[in-house]
């Protein structure tokens, strides 16, 4: 261990740390007693592809339907960098040296500074940077920063369960964040009760905080740095120093349920052995551990007491004490669960150290600016949570902890939750949580690791004229693979680990390496080819009777969905056979009955047969997938059928490129070209019964919590009563379990053998799920009368699910709209009796609540504490649990 | 006194059981059951019969408190018993210190005490619990077992050492719940109107005019008891018969002593307190003014409030120049403030205004008492009052009396 050096690595700040500093516009600084955080906004320049309607005479294609060209685009990004306060001077020098070149530097020459050091360093900052320092209140910043993160960063807050699977449970987007208790652990500790954006107060504090751990720790051990102490603590054992119940009682104090390992007196044995020379000196690891335990427990207890006094159920921890250290989080979680008996929820923040800096930065923005935009974490540029068991010895770990980074992108539009969701709060987009499902995690991490080479090659090919394309693409490969490796070590480092996140991370890393739309030319070629076949396809379909036409439309939609360059197996087919077309794809499809086959119900609904009194749909919202055959030969005819039945159609495409998915700007042009071929589409476009809109998404998956505000309004105005979600990314990796307050059609072809087998199918298995909204209402009445036994009986795993995890067993049992589906729904909705009033909230919600139930059990169980998980519940006196009699 | 004590006799259940076998653990169940029923007078159950020299022990995590009742007149005892009594007398009275660690608190000795109709004196001896093996050897060697079939014991050690006492010394430890004993000890003050025993500090916010004032502890309910031993237990007492342990913390006297030993190399509590009395914690802690340059007015934090305990020790230079005395003082202040803070929140939660601080941590520790008085007053805007007990002796006597009387109770129900 002697070779390790702590905090020496940052003597020279570089642009690797201060990303994009040359384009910085506005600064804010939070200077704490031991750590300083710099926040700045920068303008990020990147390439973006645009498509143009006017044919380019010099185009390589004979008669291109549209033209593609690259454009420069600017985006605003927020950067947050954290380092020890002692380096502030060299950091200011660095900033100054780099900013002299920037004319726009520091907007109005005033920078917001907060934290205790605002007083001490004002002169230094003013003289170094030549700006005016405006001091802002620390606690106001803290809370503004916390609110911002909770509202805008989906996987910001999480519960920590040492024995849970997964250990980290992220809270997701929570629109209802108030009231909460914010425990900010800096050198000392402040506790603030936050009731709304503007209503908060400091209700208490304690002087035993990070400074105590560091100060006392470095007096008692040879460690000099905070992380070094944490590192020692991770390896230590507190038992030689702490007096446990068993040291006093000789064992458990069973009568009142206090375990033998409960700490009665922190450091209580340090004195006992003081003069006993037969006892060897205490080792520094053990001392560090006792100290960390003692301080964490104390903060946990004080937080609990304050939360209880003020009737608050959620406690968030900020500051930079915890640092994602599992032992600390566990100790605090355990203390709070112990005292509150699980009633009060301790939550940790991935960016705990930045609250104040974010708040200070926001204070410098124009009023309401933060609210006008949506914000998204730049996964490519932020540091993840540390993974102590691996990283303690690595240089990266110390880089991260000394210069830990956070980047947030400003999105140029406001993103809102989809109003068609049945339960917006309970909605969780992703079907499989890879932090929880080890098999799936292993598979997908490996799968993406292998596919990364393919992505690199495509990236190189997409920019044939760029001299450094190969270099940048290799850079992408290196970064992405290194990320995948780190996720293997700590799957929770960047929030929920899902297929969606892995895809999005790849996309944002490509973008960082200046590759924006690597499928641009491929898409163009396929779109052209498909457009040529559209009129034949339409003629063929028009010749069929309605019932058969509906089937062929469904098959066409599915066959189109085969054309997915994101699926490796499909890539091979498409590369081998240039002529692979719709018919070939149809032949690949699973034959009916499909793996998930609700086609008959869908046809009944569309033909209004069997006595159905339902009128045609008023408005359908379609989230489409791939370019080429998919959109043109699969989706357009399907849209046309809906239009001809009197349904208004909102056709949504991604706002920015990802894989070969059709992008909004392309879709606009394609719709126009298609309308030249088909009069139905033409008149619908003209009459605004066909609306082409952007979804606000930039991912091959679909997060319905964050879709374009304009689209949200249009859905509501048009009274959308059908949502169609197409493709593996949107309907399987995400939204498979989403429930809507209208009918929903989820259509996809499973183009991954492993996944298909997981569902009990094979390659090219078909999902055609039609979920009618009344099917969701039905179980509510049943739920009220059904007994628990009936529920249990109905939830017995079906053969399909036997190979899957418990989560996919609910998938399997709800795969049709038959009574099985309702029962599975019913089962999950009532799995938490406390929430039975929300039993209409859909499986997304019930999934969440039943998980919470598990957590409670986990933490309440005294046996959950292993021998080295001490709590301080006691005293050297005989501790007695509170008696009932008062 | 004993007349009064025996008042409670009538509603005492133990004899009704007619339990005969005193060596069986049935005693524990019975006593605990009795306690749990909340009969505060049960300890007063004394009855006639031969008097015996008796031991009572409070075996804490750090310190063992031993009380020994020595009859003035030993003529009534048989030869063997007289022999043992003389042996013990010679050993105990021959010195005030035993080995390097055992101490007899001569100033606490109580003469002319009447227990079970027998006149005698009560001796108080304390030694570190870590020396228990030596005490057991002594008891074995001196044949304490000839004197009594049991020793009444409370504290965690009553459980820890039960088996050893039985197998090595042939003495049974009769265990009594520690918190029960404590609460009853405090009731004892109330009961006998020991007004001068309870006091508070007036003007705790002003060091120049802060002074001890007697507090009338008649009908004190509800009140909070903060018992600071090695760790801390916090009890809410609603009436004579109703109390509950509402909280506790492992940061107690043991933590203070442990940290002080590690930081300064001192060896005893007295030494640690003595160091602290000469130190200044402001050289060690980071105060609000060290960070903000003055008061943090927006949230009512005074400049001289501690912002971060040991916060200045993050600096290497400051660590080098830190003095032992200052470190001891900072440790004391940190621990005391933390206990005060937790006690205050418990009082608020329980809606209680009187907080009685007891326990060995406060022995020879005026610094902590004044700090607690200050903290209670300051952070509650005067609504909370910190109460203390004179010498701590009162409680200890009460506990010992209870132990003795319960031992008698147990011992003499038998025949």
From TrEMBL, chain A:
Cofactor names: Mn(2+); Ni(2+)
Please write the reaction equations for the catalytic activity of this protein. Answer: (R)-4'-phospho-S-sulfopantetheine + H2O = (R)-S-sulfopantetheine + phosphate
Name the domain of life. Eukaryota
UniProt lists compositionally biased (Polar residues) regions at 861-878
Q: Damage-control phosphatase ARMT1-like metal-binding domain: which residues? A: 446-761
Q: Does the keyword section mention ATP-binding?
A: yes
GO term, biological process aspect, one: coenzyme A biosynthetic process
For this UniProt record, the keywords arranged alphabetically read as follows: ATP-binding, Coenzyme A biosynthesis, Hydrolase, Manganese, Metal-binding, Nickel, Nitration, Nucleotide-binding
A GO CC term assigned to this protein in UniProt: nucleus
Note down the stretches annotated as region Disordered: 806-886
- UniProt biased composition (Low complexity): 806-829
Picking any one GO molecular function of the record gives: ATP binding
Q: Which NCBIfam families match?
A: panK_eukar
Instruction: Spell out the subunit comment.
Output: Homodimer. Interacts with PKM.
Summarizing the function annotation, the protein's role is: Phosphatase which shows a preference for 4'-phosphopantetheine and its oxidatively damaged forms (sulfonate or S-sulfonate), providing strong indirect evidence that the phosphatase activity pre-empts damage in the coenzyme A (CoA) pathway. Hydrolyzing excess 4'-phosphopantetheine could constitute a directed overflow mechanism to prevent its oxidation to the S-sulfonate, sulfonate, or other forms. Hydrolyzing 4'-phosphopantetheine sulfonate or S-sulfonate would forestall their conversion to inactive forms of CoA and acyl carrier protein.
What PANTHER family does the entry give? 4'-PHOSPHOPANTETHEINE PHOSPHATASE, PANTOTHENATE KINASE
* Name of the protein in question: 4'-phosphopantetheine phosphatase
Organism, as annotated: Elysia chlorotica (Eastern emerald elysia)
Q: Highest lineage ranks of the organism?
A: Eukaryota, Metazoa, Spiralia, Lophotrochozoa, Mollusca
Automatic annotation (TrEMBL), chain B:
* Key word Ribonucleoprotein present: no
Single GO cellular component term: nucleus
| Keywords in alphabetical order | ATP-binding, Coenzyme A biosynthesis, Cytoplasm, Kinase, Nucleotide-binding, Transferase
Carries keyword ATP-binding?
yes
Q: Which portions of the sequence form the region Disordered? A: 1-43
- What is an example of a Pfam family matching this protein? Fumble
User: Subcellular location, in the record's words?
Assistant: Cytoplasm
Gene Ontology BP term (one): coenzyme A biosynthetic process
What's the family? Answer: Belongs to the type II pantothenate kinase family.
Q: What is the name of this protein?
A: pantothenate kinase
What organism does the UniProt record list as the source? Elysia chlorotica
